[in-house]
Amino acid sequence: MNLRATDSPAVRPTEVPPPAFEMAGLSLRLGGTAILENVDLRLAPGRVLALLGPSGSGKTTLLRLVAGLLAPDHGTIRLAGRVVAGPGKALPPEARGLGMVFQDYALWPHMSVAKNVGFPLEMQGIAAAERAARVSRALARVGLERYAERRPAALSGGQQQRVAIARAIVAEPALVLFDEPLSNLDRELRETMVEEIAGLVAELGLTALYVTHDHAEAFSLADEVAVMEAGQISQIAAPETLVSDPASASIARFLRLGALLPARRGAEGWHLAGGARLAPASAAPGECATVLVPSRALRVVPAGEGHLAARVTRTLFRGDGHLATLALEGGHEIQLLLPRRALPGEVLGLHLCHARLRWFPPCPHPTSPSERISP
Ligand SMILES: Nc1ncnc2c1ncn2[C@@H]1O[C@H](COP(=O)(O)OP(=O)(O)OP(=O)(O)O)[C@@H](O)[C@H]1O
């Protein structure tokens, strides 16, 4: 037998596992409208990617394409290196080897926990004994082995969520899709559940694609966040990077990273709305710009000092401080968490840390007096 050099294990290059999922040049039109345009996205095994974007930006559509509930017009989707959708090819959902966690968990109320969890295996025609063993294993992994015979209604919200995750992982999928599983819960419950999911996803070492419109949820859960706007991915980055370096003013606005103020170049430097003069070193190209002023760029100083004069219009006690709405010269507003209650009408000075400002091309809608932006 002839052996080529590359057949020898000693010289075979280190094998890098293919991405858990990869989409390239994906486009879709529905009802004559472009819903997704030329989307490229990939996810390494063991990582969690959140798809974050405003309502209608295309998140759920993208997830449905990965799941096989829709087929793209153009582009290719690969799962663990295998093409599941592409020119002339579209594997059905059940042939893609995915787990899914839906809004409100979608558990069947008339079935026991064990039956709910075992349902995907039943659909695959797996024999009862094998199914029972796998269901026990999945329930043990989410800490619910004692609840196998209960109905979902007899479980807490957190336990129901665990059942939904057990059902999604019972067939040991290479990728789990989460479709806004917490969107219908009230805020307090959502915060508890996010912690639960984050803990479980990390413990189970899942590879997951998590769709949400809630940035706090995306930041808590994901290694990376893909921000979607109007059917396109505008930025993919770790949560910390998105906050410190948003790629555009519209991402900064969507993530509520601070006030967006217009700036204009003058003879001796830049004039920021609100009255601040910025050194020429802060310059951006062009004659006009939009400047993101995050709260961490601001320090309160006595009235008459600092770069900006701000008049308190209202305050709201938030437990961790007093959220003050401050009016700047020209009617723009900034919100800032203060350690003490400030009285309406009180004037404060604000010092700007130039290095923490972010400059963007001028945008038509910088912070208007009526727009509230939290720090
Ligand atoms: N079957 C359809 N025919 C026509 N347009 C559709 C269809 N399904 C979705 N759309 C449109 O596609 C766009 C993206 O919808 P999608 O549900 O993916 O957004 P989303 O980001 O998940 O929003 P949400 O957070 O509200 O669920 C929306 O403008 C929606 O109206």
TrEMBL record:
Pfam families: ABC_tran. The keyword Cytoplasm does not apply. Keywords: ATP-binding, Cell membrane, Ion transport, Iron, Iron transport, Membrane, Nucleotide-binding, Transport. GO terms for molecular function: ATP binding. Residues 21-255 form the ABC transporter domain. InterPro entries: AAA+_ATPase, ABC_SmlMolc_Importer, ABC_transporter-like_ATP-bd, ABC_transporter-like_CS, ABC_transpr_FbpC, P-loop_NTPase. It comes from the Bacteria. The keyword Coiled coil does not apply. This is ABC transporter ATP-binding protein.
